Amino acid sequence: MGNQSNNVDAKNLVIAYLGGGSLGWANVLVTDLAMEEQLSGTVRLYDIDYESACLNAKIGNMVTARADSKGKWEYIATKTIGEALTGADFIVASILPGTFKEMHSDVHTPEKYGVYQSVGDTVGPGGLIRSLRTVPMYEEFALNIKKYAPDAWVINYTNPMTVCMRTLYKVFPEIKAFGCCHEVFGLQKSVASMLSDYRGIKNVERDEINVNVLGLNHFTWVDKMSYKDMDLIPLFAEVAEKCNDSGYLGKGEENANSVFRDNNLVKFDLYKRYGLIGAAGDRHLAEFMPPRYLLNKETAESFGFALTTVDWRIGDRKKVVERRMAIVNGKENLSLTMTGEEGTKMIKALLGLGDFVSNVNLPNNMQMDGIPKGTVVETNALFSKDSVRPLYAGGLPDDVQNLTIRHVYNQECIVEAGLTKNRQLAFNAFVNDPQMSKADYEDAKKLFDEMIENTKKYIPGW
Amino acid sequence: MGNQSNNVDAKNLVIAYLGGGSLGWANVLVTDLAMEEQLSGTVRLYDIDYESACLNAKIGNMVTARADSKGKWEYIATKTIGEALTGADFIVASILPGTFKEMHSDVHTPEKYGVYQSVGDTVGPGGLIRSLRTVPMYEEFALNIKKYAPDAWVINYTNPMTVCMRTLYKVFPEIKAFGCCHEVFGLQKSVASMLSDYRGIKNVERDEINVNVLGLNHFTWVDKMSYKDMDLIPLFAEVAEKCNDSGYLGKGEENANSVFRDNNLVKFDLYKRYGLIGAAGDRHLAEFMPPRYLLNKETAESFGFALTTVDWRIGDRKKVVERRMAIVNGKENLSLTMTGEEGTKMIKALLGLGDFVSNVNLPNNMQMDGIPKGTVVETNALFSKDSVRPLYAGGLPDDVQNLTIRHVYNQECIVEAGLTKNRQLAFNAFVNDPQMSKADYEDAKKLFDEMIENTKKYIPGW
Amino acid sequence: MGNQSNNVDAKNLVIAYLGGGSLGWANVLVTDLAMEEQLSGTVRLYDIDYESACLNAKIGNMVTARADSKGKWEYIATKTIGEALTGADFIVASILPGTFKEMHSDVHTPEKYGVYQSVGDTVGPGGLIRSLRTVPMYEEFALNIKKYAPDAWVINYTNPMTVCMRTLYKVFPEIKAFGCCHEVFGLQKSVASMLSDYRGIKNVERDEINVNVLGLNHFTWVDKMSYKDMDLIPLFAEVAEKCNDSGYLGKGEENANSVFRDNNLVKFDLYKRYGLIGAAGDRHLAEFMPPRYLLNKETAESFGFALTTVDWRIGDRKKVVERRMAIVNGKENLSLTMTGEEGTKMIKALLGLGDFVSNVNLPNNMQMDGIPKGTVVETNALFSKDSVRPLYAGGLPDDVQNLTIRHVYNQECIVEAGLTKNRQLAFNAFVNDPQMSKADYEDAKKLFDEMIENTKKYIPGW
Amino acid sequence: MGNQSNNVDAKNLVIAYLGGGSLGWANVLVTDLAMEEQLSGTVRLYDIDYESACLNAKIGNMVTARADSKGKWEYIATKTIGEALTGADFIVASILPGTFKEMHSDVHTPEKYGVYQSVGDTVGPGGLIRSLRTVPMYEEFALNIKKYAPDAWVINYTNPMTVCMRTLYKVFPEIKAFGCCHEVFGLQKSVASMLSDYRGIKNVERDEINVNVLGLNHFTWVDKMSYKDMDLIPLFAEVAEKCNDSGYLGKGEENANSVFRDNNLVKFDLYKRYGLIGAAGDRHLAEFMPPRYLLNKETAESFGFALTTVDWRIGDRKKVVERRMAIVNGKENLSLTMTGEEGTKMIKALLGLGDFVSNVNLPNNMQMDGIPKGTVVETNALFSKDSVRPLYAGGLPDDVQNLTIRHVYNQECIVEAGLTKNRQLAFNAFVNDPQMSKADYEDAKKLFDEMIENTKKYIPGW
Questions:
Q1: Which of D284, D289, D288, D280 is closest to D211 using CA atoms?
Q2: So what's the pLDDT on residue B256?
Q3: What does the alpha-carbon distance between residue C30 and residue B452 come to, in Å, rounded to a whole number?
Q4: Catalytic residue among C182, C218, C284, C407
C-alpha cells in the first residue's frame, strides 16, 4: 500500500483526531507528541462532543507551552469532520460508539439469560451489538476520508478493532489504514517478568521479547517467542506448569486495578489444551472461547479475571473527567512520561525516520494462511517510509483455526448486516457467537430484540 | 483425475466389494447389477465376516442364475483383501465401523449429559468417535488399494463419508475415489411431491428436479432448483410458509418407517433463517446445527423427527438377517426392482456408456468457494468416460459458511487425530462440536474419556 | 451466476442482436431459430449500419412467413441500442470491429517487417491492434447492457473473444455473459473422421466426441478425449504418427475452401512436442506459438495452412452481399438446414429446456488451475436452467502453461491499455507477442506507431 | 519455518561448507567470520576437489591464528559430505556446477547461431543447460541434508539460484534453506552514489537505501525506494533522464573491471518502458529480457555492458589460484576488511543476535502476488531468531509480470526435466527462452543437442 511519492515534512505535520474529545487517548497523544522532538505541526481535534475537544485542545496547547515539551504542536478543535480532515497527513480514530447507556445494555442485558461477559466490546452479544452501532459511524468516516484526505495514513484505536478496520476497507478499499492495539504488549510484559523471576534476567523491555503474532484482534496467538538467542516457549511452558493453580502475576500487575488484572490462568489453560500461547489479556481471550471460562461469574473468578461492570466504568470515568478539569484549570500537571503506546513511533517510521516491526491489524493479503483474503487479521508488520508491510506469519493449527474462523465469519456477517441493515443476518451472527450457546434459541431471540431496541438510537434505518 | 488410458471391457468387469458381507448394500448391488444388461463380470466380496460374504455370494449367484437377470455376474467371497482387490476395475466400500456395541456408545452415552443425537454417525459426539474407529480402517483400505489396485475407481458408501474420503486421499493422494450418498434424493422426492400437490404436475422423477448442491455430506445445501423451465425455489418457499406448523410429508413418506420419516420442518425453519434449502434429511441436518432442533427429545419431536435408537437398529437388523436366510434357502425371492441408487449408473458412465450429472463427495479443487483445497465437499459433478469432473457450485453465504466450516475443521482434526493417535486433538474437536455446547466442559471430558474407553477395541495404539 | 428467479416464457422471447446487420451470423440465427419449434418471440437487430439490419430483418420475417419455419419470430431493426436492449431476455453480440481497411492494416502491415499472420484477429500484432479497437466498443456494450438489460444472458461471438469477454466483465462485473466459438468443433469433426478411416466406425457426430477442453479461445487444448467407451488419445497419436508428412484431412475438409482448410499438421507437431492436442484450427494455433509455423509464407505452407488475405475476404464478402440481396429479392431461398452452431441449443438450456455440456468462454473461477481468477478461459460448462456452470478442467503442464499464460497477461495488458488509453502499456504487450520476436525492437516501434495510426478512427482519445 | 526450539550456542557453532574448496566464497567466509567476535566454532569444508578444500582449511586456520582475528574458528576439510554435515548448525552451499569446459559450452556454443549471452549462468541457453547439471547435484545435497542435518539452516550462494533453491525444496520440502545474492546491493550502491552526485548527500551506506524488492533472482525489481524520509524514485527517474545516452557510473564503478562494469543503461531503458527499476546488474537483466539488449555484441556495447567470456574467466581464475598459493605460503596476507556480504549477519540474526531485513530467495508463500506458491522468488524478509519471514512485497504490473512468469515456468520445467531426465521437456523450456527467439527452430534443436552432448558428463542417465 501507499505507492505514490509522499514527501511529508515531519516538522509541519497535520494530524486529524477523530474522537478528539476522548479522555484517555487524547492524553496519550498529547504526551507522546510532546516527548518526540523530531515531529511538530498541528493536531485537529474533531468530536461530536465539541466542548470536550476544546478542553483537550486547551490541554494540548498548555503542554506545548511548557519548557519540557520537545515536540511543538498547535491543537485546534474543529466543528466539522471536513475541517479536521482536509490536508491531514495522519488521521487517528479513537471513539466510543454510543454512550454508557448502550454499553450497559451490551454488557449487562445478556446476564438476564445467564450470559456473562468480561468486557463486552469485541465479540459476544455485547461486542456484536456494539459492532452494529460502530459500522455506520465508520462507514461515515471512510466516506469522509475518501472525500477529504484519501492519501492520509489512518491509525485506528477504536474497538471492535476488526469491525472498524473491515468497514473502512469495505467502504473505501484504497484507504491506508491500520489498527493498533496494546494487548500483545501485556503478554510481552508478563514474559519479561518471567525472565526475571525464573531465569534471573532483569530489566528486559517488553519489546525485546520477539513474538510471532497471528490471529484476530483480542484473539491473537503466539507460536514463536524469543529473547535474544533464547527460545522462550519452554520458559512459558514451565511457568504454565508451575503456576497452574495460582496463576502468575507479572511485575507491576500485582498492583494493577483488580478489574484489569491478568494472572494468565486462561493463557495457561489454553496452552495446555492447544500448545499455543494466547496473546491478549485473559478477559479478552475468554470471550472468544466457547463457554468454559465464562460459564458464570464464579468460573471467571476461578480463572482469576473479573467481569468489568459498566458501573465501575462510570465511576472511573468520573475521576478521569475531574482530573482533566484539574489539568485545564492548572491545578494538576500532565506528567510527560512515555505511555508505552506506539502511535508516535509508527508515524515516525511512516515518515522514514526509523523502521520497526510491530503487531498491527490489516486486511489479510497473505500474511495469515487459511483466513479469507481481505478480512482483518493481526500479525507483525514492518513499518517504514510510507509503507506498512505485513510479515508472513504462517497459519494456526486446525483446532485453533476453527475457534478463530468462527469469529472471522461472524464479524463478516455483522459488518455486512450493519452496512445493509439486515436484521436476520445480524441475528444469525449473534446466535452463532460461542457465548450464546449457553442461552436457549428462543431466549437468544428475545435478548437480541431487546438489545437492538436498546441501541436503536445509533442504528437508524433498522 | 484419471488421465491414463483406461479401456476397460464392460462385459468383463471386476468389482471388489469391501464390506461384502454387509446386509443392505450387498442386496442393492446384486439387484442393480442384475437389472443392467450392458455390464457383466465378477464381483469379489471381502468382509471381516467371511461367512456373511459367502452368504451374499450365494445370493448373488442365485440371482445370476435367474432368467430375469440381465447382467450376468459371478460372485466370489475372498478371504483376503488382496485377493479381492488385485485386478479390480471398480472397488465398492461399504462397511460398518465396529459393532452395535460401539454404536450404542456413540448414540446413547452422551444422553447421560443431556446430549441427544438423531443418528450419531457423522458428527456430534457419536459421529466423531465413530470417525476415530473408521480412520484406521480406511487408512488400511487406502494402503491396500495403493498396493493392489491403484488405478481402480473407488466408490465409497460408508459413513462418516467425509472422514472416509479424506482418509483415503490423505493416505493415497492419487486414489480415484468418490463418495455417494442418497440424502439429496430425499429433497428431490419431496419437491417432486410438492409439484404434484401444489402445482398439479404429476409423475415427476426425482432426478428431473435439477439442484445445485453444495456443502458437506449430510449438511448439503441447495441454492438453485428447477424443473424444466420452472424455478422451484418459490414453490419451496410457499410450502415452507404454508406447512410451517404441520410439516410436509412427500408422497410415500406418510408410510415410511416413523424412525426415518422426514416432514421437512427443520428444512423449513432453516430456509426461513438462512434463505437456503438444506439438502439432507432433517435428522442429519439437525445434528450439524448448534442446539435448537436437538435440545432434547421433545424439541426433536416438535420438529417432527425421531431419535433413532440402537435398540431399534438391532431389532431391524434381525429381520434383515432372517430375510437373507429366507432368500438363501430359497424361501423368498430377491425382487428385481430398481433400488434408486446410482452406483451402477456411475460405473457405466465411467466406462463411457452414458454421461450424467449427480452430486458426489470429492476433495475440493475449486468446486466450492471458501472451503480449503483438499477437504472433502459434496457438489454436483459430471460422470463420463474415466472421469468425474466437479461442477463449479459457488459458495455459501457467510452465515451458512460459518456453520459449515466449523465441521470442516472439526473433521480435519478428527482425521488427523485418528491417523496420529492424538488424543488431545481428538478432544479439541469433540468439545468444539455444536452438540457438545450443551454439556459443561468437565462433563465433556468425562464423556470423551468414557466413549474412547468404549471404542478402544477399534483404536489400537491409543 | 444468475441466481435470481427468472421464469422466462420460451414462446415470447426477446432477443437483441448487437451487430444485427452482420452478414454471416444473422443468417445462422435466422436459420437456427426457424428450425426450433420450442421457441418464438421477437428479434431486435441493432447495427451501426441500420440499412443492413433492415435487410436482415426483412429476410428474417420472410423466413418466418414460410411454411417450413417451425419457430415463429418477428424481426425488427432498431435505430438505437437502447431500443434493442430494453426488456431483452437474451443478447447476441457479433460485430466486426472496424472495416476491411483496418483489418487490412492488422493483417498486412506487419508483413513489411517479415511478420506473417494466418488470421490476425486474435493475437499477434493484428489481433492486438484489433483488440484496441474492440475494447471501447465492448465498454459501450457493457454500459448499455448494465443500463437497459442487466439480467439478460449475453452470448458473444465477436473476436477477439477473450478481449471482448474480459471487457464486458471488467466494466459490468455482474453481467451474465459467455462466449461461443466453434473452433473446437473442428477437432471433433477431424477425430470423428479418423474414427471412420482408422477404426471403421462411421457416422459419428462431432458432439459424440467427448473432450476435456482447457485454454484460451483459439488456443485451447484437449488432454482427454473419448467416444463412448473408447479412449481416443491413442487414435490421435496413431494418426499424428502416420500422417506426419502429409497431414490428415477429415471428411468434408478436402473440399473446404483452401483458405480455411485444416490438415492438422500443426496439431500433429504440437502433439509430438507437448503431448497435448491443440483444439483450434491450425491457422489459429500457429499464431499463438513462438515462430515456427509462421516464420514466413513458406513455413505456413509447409504445415499445410494458408494465410488468409484481406483481399480474399473482400472478394468473399462481395459474394455474400450479392447472395443476401438475392434472398431479399426472392431470387434465392435461405436453406433451412442446421448450421451446427449451438446458440439456439444454449438458449433452450438456459430456459430449462434441456441441459447439455459444451465448451464456452467465461471468467476463470477455478475451472482452470494456474490461470488468474477473473481472466477469461475456455473450458467445458454445463448449460442448464438459468445457469452456466464451468466444469473443473484441471491445469496445463508447465511447458504449455507457459505458452498460454504469456497471452493471458498480454491480453490483460491490451484490455487495460484500451480502457485507460495507455499507449506504452499497449506497446509493451505488442512487443511481447511471440510473432513480434521476429522483428527488431526498433522495427516493432515503427510498426506499432503505423498500425495505431491506421486504426486511429476507432480509438478516439489516443 | 523452523518452529522447533533451537538453542544453538553461538560460541560453538558448526558450519558445513559444500563447495569448501571454492576460491572466492571461501575467502569471503574466512574473512567475515574472522571479523565477527560474537561467533566461533568449527567450519567443515567439503568439496569434490579435496585438495582445494585442504588449502582453504589451511588459510582459515592461519587466519584464526592471527591476532587481528576476533572470531576463532577451526577449519577442517572432510572427505565425505556426511562428515561435513553431521551435527552442522549451518550449511553454506557454493559450488561451480561443472568446469570451465562446460561453462565454455554454455556461454559460447550459442554464438554459432547468433545467440549472445552476457553471463550465461542463470537463464538463456547457457543458464538452462547449466541448470540441468546443477539439479542432480542439488538433489544429492538435499538428500544428504535430509539424512545428516535436517534441522540445519542452509544458505545457498550457487547459481542458478532459483533452480538450486527449487531443487532443494522439491526434494526435501522441510529444508530450512534460503538463497543470498548481492545483485540488489549494486543498485543500492548506484543510488547512494546518485544521492551524492545529484543531491549532495554524501557517505550514505548501501543498506541505508530502503528498497522493496520483488521478482526472481537476477531479474528483481524495485517499486519503492527511500533514504530516510526521502522518496528516491524521483531521483532515479531524474538520473535516468539525464544520463539517457551516457549512462551513469556510480562511485567506485569507474574503476571496476570493465567486464563487470554497470552503467545502468539497461535499467534506465527498462524504467522508461515499464516504470519500474530493475534491481540486478544490467548484464543479468539483459539476459531475461526478450532480445533488445543482446541482439549481438554491438547492442550490448551500446548499452554499456560487456559479454563475459570464459577465456577471461580462465585468466582471472589463474590469478586467484596464484594468490591463494601466495597466502598459503605466507607470501601474502588475507586482508581482513568487510566483504559486504551478509552471510555472517544472517547467521547472527538466526541465532537471535540482531534482527534485520534483507532480500532473500525463498519459496513463494504469499510474499509475491501472482507467482505460483512454492516457486522461488526474491523479496525482502525479516531475519530473526531461528526464522526468516518474508515481507509482503505486492505484485508486479501485468507487463512486467509477463516477462517474469515466463522464466518462472521455464525454470520449473528445467528443474522437473532435470529430476526426471525428460529431454523433451528440457528442450521445450530451452526453445521458449527469450534469447532463443533469435534462432530458428531447427537451429535451436541442433544447438540443444550439441550443448547437451557437451555437458553429458554431468547429467548421467540422459
A1: D280
A2: 67
A3: 71
A4: C182
**Look-up of cell digits 548506484:** D190
The reported pLDDT for the residue numbered B435 is 96
Q: What are phi and psi of A47, to 5 degrees?
A: -155, 150
pLDDT value of position B424: 98
- Is the separation of the CB atoms in D217 and D127 below 8 Å? no
Q: A222 Cβ partners below 8 Å, 6+ apart? A: A184, A187, A211, A212, A213, A214, A276, A277, A278, A279
CA distances from A274 to A263, A278, A397, B403, B448 (A): 19, 10, 9, 22, 17
Q: Which of residues 313-352 of A touch D (CB under 8 A)?
A: 351-352
pLDDT digits (tens, 9 = 90+) for D174-233: 999 999 999 999 999 999 999 999 999 999 999 999 999 999 999 999 999 999 999 999
- Give pTM, 2 decimals: 0.96
Q: Is residue C425 within 8 Å of residue C417, measured between CB atoms?
A: yes
Q: Do chains C and A touch (3 or more CB pairs under 8 A)?
A: no
**Measured between beta carbons, which residues in chain C are less than 8 angstroms from residue D429?**
399, 402
The tens digit of pLDDT for each residue in C261-298 reads 899 999 999 999 999 999 999 999 999 999 899 998 99
Spans in chain B with pLDDT lower than 70 = 1-7, 255-256
Q: How far apart, in whole angstroms, are the C-alpha atoms of residue C441 and residue D269?
A: 13
Q: For residue C291, which residues of chain D lie inside 8 Å, CB to CB?
A: 437, 441
| Residue closest to C380 by CA, chosen among C392, C369, C371 | C392
Q: What mean pLDDT do residues A6-31 have?
A: 88
Alpha-carbon Rg for chain D, nearest whole angstrom, is: 21
Q: For residue range B329-350, what is the model confidence (pLDDT) as tens digits?
A: 999 988 888 888 889 999 999 9
| C-alpha span between C293 and D440 (Å, rounded) | 11
* Set of cell numbers at residue A423: 436484521
Taking CA atoms, D93 is separated from C227, D44, D52, D334, in Å, by: 54, 12, 15, 22
Residues of chain A with Cβ-Cβ distance to D353 below 8 Å are: 228-229
pLDDT surpassing 90 at residue A257: no
- The alpha-carbon gap from C435 to the nearest alpha carbon of chain B, in Å, equals 33
Contact B382 C233 (CB under 8 A): no
Q: CB distance from B174 to chain C under 8 Å?
A: no
Q: Is A385 on the interface with D (CB under 8 A)?
A: yes
Of D273, D409, D428, the CB nearest to C273: D428
Cα distance between residue C356 and residue D400, in whole Å: 40
The candidate with the shortest Cα–Cα distance to A300, out of A311, A312, A285, A310, is A285
Segment C337-371, tens digit of pLDDT: 888 888 999 999 999 999 999 999 999 998 999 99
| Model pLDDT, residue C441 | 94
Counting other chains too, the contacts that C362-365 makes at CB distance below 8 Å and 24 or more residues apart are C362/C165, C362/C178, C362/C179, C362/C388, C362/C390, C363/C165, C363/C166, C363/C169, C365/B366, C365/B369, C365/B392, C365/C390
Q: What pLDDT is stored for residue B6 in this prediction?
A: 54
* D4 — pLDDT class (breaks 50, 70, 90): very low
Burial (CB < 10 A; 0-12, 13-18, 19+), residue A299, is middle
The mean of the pLDDT values for chain D is 95
Closest-CA residue in chain D for A354? D228
Nearest to D441 among C292, C425, C428 (CB): C292
d(CA D354, CA C448): 53
Of the listed A104, A182, A284, A407, which one is catalytic? Answer: A182
Alpha-carbon separation of residue D245 from A272, B259, C366, D74, D260 (angstroms)? 67, 88, 48, 52, 19
User: Is residue C125 within 8 angstroms of chain B, CB to CB?
Assistant: no
Which ipTM value was assigned to this complex?
Answer: 0.95
On the question of pLDDT at C159 being above 90, the answer is: yes
Q: Given an 8 Å threshold on Cβ–Cβ distance, is D210 in contact with A10?
A: no
Asked whether the beta carbons of D104 and D427 are under 8 A apart, the reply is no
